[in-house]
Amino acid sequence: MPPNFYAVAVVTMDGKIAKNSAHFSDWSSKEDKDFLHKKMNDSDVILVGNNTYKIAKKPLSKRNCIVFTSSVPKTKKAKENLLYCNPKKIDFKKLILDLGYKKICVLGGAKTYGYFLEKNLLNEIFLTIEPIVFGSGISLFDFDAGIKKFKLVSVKKLNKKGAVLLHYKK
């Protein structure tokens, strides 16, 4: 069975994942966080960008993590469950196959989500839309590789305030 890469993200109604690069996602609902933790628990490894890892280091340090960063030549094992990886210098899909991971949870940020979209590695996207607006900030995807299409599989209302979980597949 080939690896399944799935993104889990929360956005505002205007499609922002954060106000700026240091903004933690403490603005999302309890229901979104419950779903996120469930998906993380079901994953073999969590993949994040370096900035996201720095912001959420404490909760992520308890899990198998791969951190995308350009500060390592190729890969660097920092701890038993922590691998730094330069996606521009390696064949990432081959690395995942070599490591034997089957369920890969991609948690962002925008450049990391964009990398997986650009490389056609995302099989699924779980997207929570919270009923708030930032007005400006960081969009979900940062990539320039043409149009990517997904099919909506399910819609679930998470709470009375109006948070909605969308599930898309390629």
Protein described:
With 170 residues, the chain is of the alpha/beta class. It has one domain (4-18, 26-169): Dihydrofolate Reductase, subunit A (3-Layer(aba) Sandwich), CATH 3.40.430. Helix content is 23%, strand content 33%. The protein contains five helices and eleven strands; from the N terminus they run ββαβααβββαβαββββ. It has a nine-stranded mixed β-sheet with strand order 5-6-4-3-7-1-8-11-10, sandwiched between helices. Strands 2-9 form a two-stranded antiparallel ribbon.
Rounded mean pLDDT score: 93
- The tally of helices reads 5
Q: What's the CATH class label?
A: Alpha Beta
| Rg for CA atoms | 15 Å
Under CATH, the topology is which? Answer: Dihydrofolate Reductase, subunit A
Strand order, main sheet: write it out: 5-6-4-3-7-1-8-11-10
Distance between the termini: 17 Å
How many structural domains does the protein architecture include? 1
Q: Can you tell me the CATH architecture? A: 3-Layer(aba) Sandwich
The name of the CATH superfamily reads: Dihydrofolate Reductase, subunit A
Question: Major sheet, described briefly?
Answer: 9 strands, mixed
Strand portion: 25-35%
Q: How helix-rich are the residues, as a percent range?
A: 10-25%
Structural class by helix and strand composition: alpha/beta
- The tally of strands reads 11
Question: Element order, helices and strands?
Answer: EEHEHHEEEHEHEEEE
Assembly level = single chain
Query: Uncertain segments of ≥5 residues (pLDDT<50)?
Result: none
Globally, the shape reads: globular
